[in-house]
Each structure stands twice: as C-alpha cells, then as structure tokens.
Amino acid sequence: MESTSNPDLLNINYNDWNRILAHYFLSTATPGHEFYLAVSPSLLAATYMQSYGVQIPLDVASLAFANSVTSTYLEQMIIPGSRRSIIRTKDSSEVPCSLAFLVFSVLAAYTMHKDEDNAANAYYPRLARLLSCQSLPNGIQGLTSTEFRRAWFSLKEWFSKWHHLNLAMPERAYTTDPYSVTTIPCRHALLRRIDLAKLPIAFWQAGYNPGDCLSEQQFDRLMKGLSLTHDGHRMLVELPQAVLAQVNQELLLWDGSFGDEEKMQSSTGSNADDAGSLTERKRNNAIISLHLEFDRKQQPELYYAPQRLAHFPTTFDTGRLELEASGDSEYDFVPVRPEDGDQLQKGFVWHDCHHKPLTLHWHGASIIVFTKDTLDNFGTRLGLPLNSPEPCYVFCHNTAKKEVDHYLRLVTDGSYDLCTDHLPNGWIMFGNVVANKVVPGLDALEGLEIIDKASIRLAGGLRLGRRNAWIKGAPPQVSVYGSDSPVRSISITGHNIAGHVIALNENGEFNTDETLTSPGSYVVTAGDTSERIEIIEPGLESIAKDGKDTWELPATADYDLLALPTGNWWLLGSQPDQVISWQQDGGSRLMRSPFKVVWAIKLHHNTETAQVVCLMEDASAPTWVPDRSVPPDLRVLLTQWSHAIVSSTTHRPKRLSLGSCWDRRYIRITWVEYLRTAKKIRKMLKER
Amino acid sequence: MIDDALLYWLTQTGQGSWATFQRTVARVASATTVNGSRDLPMLLSDLGFISFFVDGSDQWRVRPPALVGLSAMPNKAALCGARTSKLVDALLGNVDAIGCEVEVSRLKYGIRRITTKGSDQQLTLVAKACGISYLPDYAGRLCKQLPSIFDLIEAAPQRTPPQGWTARSFDLSLDDPTWVDGFQPGSACRYTRGYGIDKYLLHIVVDEQSGEGKFLAFNQHEAVYAAAALQGKQLASYDPIACLLTTHPQATLPPRYAQAVCLCAAQPSDLQSGLGKRIYRQVDPLVATNLLVLLGQSLPPFDQLPSFD
C-alpha cells in the first residue's frame, strides 16, 4: 500500500464518504448492542484505507472529510432553492445520505472544548464554524433543530429496520426541548479529542500494540493512569462499556504513533488545541512490534516489525540498519539476534539519521505472548485465550521464568513445551500453551490474564485488508472457542439467509463454503458474541490507471527480427526485390529486416552444406514478377534474389523449416513456386 | 486449493507487498501445494497476470485485463491480467455471440486458462465487447522491445557493493551452476542482510591480472544471464523439433523474457527437478531463437531443424 498526502488523491465526494462510513459502521457494530458513531481522525483514515487501500495522514483524512461535507452542505442546504437531499434521500445503495453529515456533526462535538468565545458545551457555534456557516439560536444556517432531530431518528430507524443494529440515543433526545438534540452528537462523540489525544502515549507506555483488544481489567488500569477532562470523566462513569468500545476502537485503528512525551504531558488537562480546528499534530514516534515465525525445522524466529507512519521516509536509516518500507504501513522485519536479549527486555529507540525527530520505539517486556492473529500471522497478544484452537507461545525473560512456569502449570494441563534454543540470550519460550482452566482467586500475571469470553474465530480464506471482508469464492472458516461451556451451534443472518442455525462439529467449526457463497453482508452469532462477515464480488476498480505496466507496447518501425547462426546468409522476401546479404559472425546479433523474410539461404561453401530455411509458416508464393523494363538498380536486386535461390539447388541443400509443426507439403509447394519464379527472372535477365 | 479466487483477490486488492502475497498464498495453499507454491508467483508473472517487484521495490501489481494473441497458435488469444467472475462471464457470453470458440482448462494450482479462437476481427470484437484490449502476436511484438543482455550491461549504472551485507555468487564454473557463499570475480553477485529484499550486482573483471573490476546494478535473473553471456556459458537452449525452450533450474528467464516465451501459447514453465531443467513448452521458434540471442545464448545448429522435403 502506498502512503500519500497528495490532496488530489483525496478528491472523494460526499457520496463516497457516505458509502464508506456506512460500510464501516455496518461491519463493526454488533447486533443487539447499542453502538455510537464515535468518529475520530483515525477512524476516518481507517475507513479511507479500507475502501481505497491508501494510507493517509490523520489530519488529511479529517480535512478531506470536512471539505466534502462543507461544500455539499453549502450546495444542498444553504443555497436558496437547493434540494436538501443530504437529509432527505437515500443513495443508490439505499444508505441514508444523512449519515456522513451526522457523523460530521459528531466530529464537531469531538473537537469541542472551552475557548475564549464559547463554553465547552456550546455545540451549534462549533458545528457552524466547521461548516463555514452561521450559528443560529435554534440550529445553524440551513438546518433547524427539528430537521436535525428528524435526521438522527430516521438514521436510527434505518439501522434498526434494515440491519438489526441499535444506534444509541440519549434519553434527553426524546424530550421536546429544542436544545436536547445537541445531546445526540455530544453523546456519540464519547471521549473528545482532548482526551483521546492522551491515548497513544498511554498505549505505548502500557506496551499495547495496534489491534490489541483490552479486557475490562486492562481498560480500568489504563484509564486510571489518564487525567481525563470533566466531560471525559463523566462519559467514563455513565457509559463505561461504550468508552471501552471506543478505546478499543482507537487501539484497533492506532497507527502505532505517539507524540513527544513532554508535549503530551503539558497538554494534559489544558486546552492546547484550537477550538473547531481539525488539524492534528503529526506524531514523530512510532512503535516497533514483534513478529514470530517458525522456520522449516520449527525453530522460532523472532523479528522486530517497525511501524511506518504516512509521513515517515521510505528508507529509515538508523546508522546500523537501513529499513526499507515494506508497504502495509511497515518497514522490513529485522531479525532479533541472540545478542539482542537485553534490549528486548529493556526496550530501545532507533533514530533516523536523516530525519532527526523521527524515532522507532520498542517498549521492552519480560513476558510476551504470541498467538495467530486474524490474518494468520503470529503477533503479540494481551492475555491467554481460554481453550484456543491455536496454541500460544509465551516468551519470557529468565528473571520471570519461575513465576511464569508456575502460573502456566495452574491454568493449563501442563502439556506445554519449553524451548531454550535459537532465542535471544536470557530468554526462554513456552510453546504450545493452551489455557484451559480458570482458577478462582488466582492473581493473573500481567500479560497472561485468561480471556474467557466466547470468541468467534475467522481464519483462512482470502481476506481483503484488515476488515472482515473476504473475496467471493474463498470465505473464512468459522469456529467458536474461549467459553467455559462449549457452544454447539451458531446462527447466520445475511444474504437470503435469516437466522439460519448451523451445528458446529466437534472442533467447534462449520464449513462456510456452502453458506457464504453470495456477495453481501452476513452476521454470525454464537451466544452473545457476533461477528459480521462481508463477501465481496471482485471488481476492476483497484487496477492502477497510472499508465504504467499496461499491455501497450511502444510503436516501432515495421521490421522483422531474425536470429541466425554463424555464416553468410541471403535473406529473401516474397517480392523478388526483397533481398539482403547478412554475415553472422558470433551468433550474438539479431538481424533487422525491413521486409518479412520468408527464406534464409546459406550457400555451399567449402565443406559446408547449403541450407534453405523457411522462416514463415504461412509463406505465400512470390507476389510480383517483373517485366523486362526494370531499371538498373532493381536488376541488381533481382539478380541477387534469383541467384540465391537457383544456386542453392546445385549442391543438394538441406531444406529446413524453422517450425516443426508447420505444414511441410505447403512449404515444399511454395519453395517450388519460388524456384520457378527465380528461374524465370534469370532467363529474363539473360535475354536482355 | 488455489484457484481463480486468488486471481479475484489479487484483482480486488490491486497491489501490495511481497510479504502480503506470500502470507495470502500460505493461507489458501494446502499442505501439498505449499512447497510448489514457490512456482506460483512465476506462473502469475509469466502469464501476464501480475507484475512482481515493480520498479525494483517489493511491491506486486495486477496488470489490466487483456486478450493476448498467442504467437505460436494462430487465431488464438488468452485472457490475461486482472480477472473477475463478471469479466469471465462477459467473455464467455460474447465469444458465443460473436461466433468464436472458447477453451477452458486448468493450469497448475487450479487457475483457469481461458482461450478463444477466431479471426483477428472476431477477437477484436470480443475484446471490445468486454471492455478490454486485444493484442495480436503479443510475444512476437514484445521481442522487438526487449534489450539484449549486452545492451543492459552497457546501460547498467556502476555501484559499490553494500557494506555489512553477506555476498553470494552464481558459480558458472560448476557442472551444475548454483549460488555459492562468498564473492567471485566476474560473476552475478547477490547481497543479503537477513531481512528485506536482496540486492544483485554484476561484477565485470576489468584487469585480468589483478582480478579487479567494477560492479553494475542488475536484477537477479538478468545478472545471471549477463555473467553467462560474458563467460560464454550456455544456460538456455531450444529444441526446434519439440518447440521446447529449456533453462538451467537456477537460471530462470528474466520476467519480461519469460513472458514473451510463455505467452506464445499461454503455457507456464514446468520445473523438472529430476531432469535438472525448467521447461517452457510450445514456444514459437522465431520468439525462441530471438530470445536466445538477446540473452547472449547460442542458437541450436540449424541443421537440426525439421526438413520440409
């Protein structure tokens, strides 16, 4: 994937944003649970990446989204006589056109905090400012609070009726108070920017990786370390599950970047950002993750996997290592050497020699758990999933060995392996770890907490990017694990299927090849856990249209290209004036002939036999026989052409064809025609 | 099982890194095909579906769909490049409507080889109806565009070998040429560092007595053939009777040259480990002889050609 900040690439219109946002929320919301349109720049960048396969900086994503909504709002809501379709109609995919606008209204709430002109919760002035229109006492220019409320409730109904999803709605929104509608976007924003900005460094300090999913316990620990604003704290108290989902969403979408620690601390609790501004500060620090592979002998191979941010260079030069961009927001993996054991535990920073502020960080750890992730790679994981079908691999520094060994004996049946070879110095690996016990009252080791919630595992198939979408014809295998009480069946709802109950086999799996066949969206439910799966019809939209690598070949002069062995050759075309003499001496040159060569003739020389080689499968008889009035220069060519043919016959030439499956009889007849014409020409030339 | 679904996935994705490609293939390849799947990128590249290592990067990219005229099979064309189920349906429907013949067979890994037979005019109409290009005698025309290995040596920029990387050389003096550890003067050199993509250089001896020379930037396969051409070593040959072009298994043809060979009949190459050969079948004799000369290899003696008497 390429990264870019080229604004031309961001020229997507309102309808496209509407479509990709609908796509995102439909693929992430869980049926039966309230969900929020908790938008943030990382969500916008992720939806863009999901749909266009291009990584863009967070601030560019926000500005591109704002530009498209603002211009559409102006055209459709403010200019007198406009159709107001963004709050009234549905697009060609039957998605309400209001979705992108309402998400934008949440983005306005996301950026709110107290400033010189407005109180922290003065919503309409912030929305008006982002839309470049006037704020009114009961709405904004072009939109009354009644219309605003109607749009929200209409969207809620659409999600519920067509997708069985429950869009959250604060109780106050049901009252008749005209200002109550502003509680909807404010509620949907959950934690605002000023609080979310504190998360990346907190993720980094806790050693979390993009894609990790926090348990409630880990979430509590993380939030206790943060100094939230008053509004943020209120959201955390009132909607802890929604904020957990938002923080997990931010962690899932996190690009592994974080700002300088000092700056982050100075902004804690203050109002450093401009109100209403969508500009995000570029973060100059990115994390290094770990990646595990096994070689052919099943020996573990550990790699550093440095994240590459959109504004990072294609080559990150640490002085010792030159890391080349490897697409997919990463640099090349770097093997962890045996002598790296100490730095693996303590952590380190790589600086780019040529771009001083840019750094890559490994936070260090004494216990690291690897499991197969949803892309079937071995990545790090927080905790040990209960009864996982895929075993875990626990890397542990010698200083924690006894504790970990003791703990694993308690939560597994003790059948794990211990590996000490091919590892960084001072480290050991517990292999094939499957946690299958929940021990009441046992204090979990940090990083080795038991995850005992039922999980749906989607593995294999041909997945598109990091979203839950697979190409038609190669769906994922679905299995259920992690629960104390085994799940025997699942239900599927989706394209032409409504609540279809399917029994799982003894391994907790079922065959999806016959179920997930048609393109569309499916929801797989096991107990109270659901996963949405999309099956995508392949299209040609992603084929590069930059003119490179097309099939077109540059126009060349019309010539015939020939390879001939060493010797003196006559090359003849189908017209008696088409003749070239060619001396091939090293066999290393190609002959370019201005005409289509039918015959290559090598005449008898010393002990060498003459050769007549047919070079064209569909050679035609000579197309022209000259009369007696030929000019002198043409006589030379005619003489050469006829001489080569007639002379070749005097010493029993080898008559050969270049193609083995060409029609020999046809070639023989054609050769006779050429011989006859050559003799006729020789006779004519003599008579003159 | 790898089949057209992989082509659909590649088409939908458009482009990506080598690592993504490998991971994806590993996910869908069964245990029996995992080892063989090293041949898969070659098949996809040689038959014009994907370009790998675009502009020297680790990126792959899907080529646009096209109906490619087969040089060794007059009036036949194969569907190459990006593929979707809708495009295949459209092609099959239009072939029928326009009165061409269609032939569908399975290549290795279950990928469908779809060819149509008809006059130039009919094939042009089919392609137009599907919204793709028709390219008559593609391999023959591609040959005219390819540089000779000596042109590449002439144009290659000089480089210094990367410091701290491990050197290997392609040892042409062995009966069975292969990559060996260490640097050998006058050879194709491969530099690795344990991660990322390798770098290839061609070393040319300038002073025979001291063994001193210069390093030129090259791609992997071109470097091997350039070294062989300079040393007069034969790595590829053509059998005009059987229309087979064979190469040493460690000296696969460079991608563009391999494409010209494979698109003569839309046939992928076949590694015959037992025979120590890679075989390209149904290669048009004009294309084969031209490519051998372009790659600095000797032609087969012409007196071995079939007689038309």
Contiguous helical run count of chain B: 11
Q: Unreliable segments of chain A (pLDDT under 50, ≥5 consecutive)?
A: 1-9, 262-276
- Please, what is the oligomeric state? heterodimer
Tell how many strands the DSSP assignment of chain A holds.
Answer: 35
The secondary-structure class of chain B comes to alpha+beta
Q: Distance between the terminal alpha carbons of chain B, to the nearest Å?
A: 49 Å
Q: Helix share of residues of chain B?
A: 25-40%
Gyration radius of chain B, rounded: 21 Å
- The number of helical elements of chain A comes to 17
Mean pLDDT level of chain A: 83
Largest interface: A-B, 72 and 78 residues
| Helix vs. strand class of chain A | alpha+beta
* Widest sheet, order of strands of chain B: 9-14-13-12-10-11
Using the CA coordinates, give the radius of gyration of chain A. Answer: 36 Å
- The low-pLDDT segments of chain B are none
The portion of residues forming beta strands of chain B comes to: 25-35%
Overall helicity of chain A: 25-40%
How widely separated are the two ends of chain A? 75 Å
Q: State the order of secondary-structure elements of chain B, H for helix, E for strand.
A: HEHHHEEEEHEEHEHHEEEEEEHEEHEEH
Commentary on this structure:
The complex is a heterodimer of chains A (688) and B (309). Chain A is an alpha+beta fold. In chain A, 30% of the residues lie in helices and 22% in strands. In chain A, strands 6, 7, 8, 11, 12, 13, 14, 15, 17, 18 and 19 form an eleven-stranded mixed β-sheet that branches. A five-stranded mixed β-sheet of chain A has the order 22-28-27-24-25, with helices on one face. Chain A is elongated, with a radius of gyration of 36 Å. Chain B is α+β, with helices and mostly antiparallel strands and 309 residues long. Chain B is built from eleven helices and 18 strands. Chain B has a six-stranded antiparallel β-sheet with strand order 9-14-13-12-10-11. Chain B has a five-stranded mixed β-sheet with strand order 6-7-5-4-8, with helices on one face. A four-stranded antiparallel β-sheet of chain B has the order 15-16-18-17, with helices on one face. The longest helix of chain B has 14 residues, at 85-98. Chain B is globular and about 70 Å long. The model of chain B has no long low-confidence stretch (mean pLDDT 90). Chains A and B meet through strand 11, strand 29, strand 34, strand 35 and helix 17 of A and helix 1, strand 1, helix 2, strand 3 and helix 5 of B.
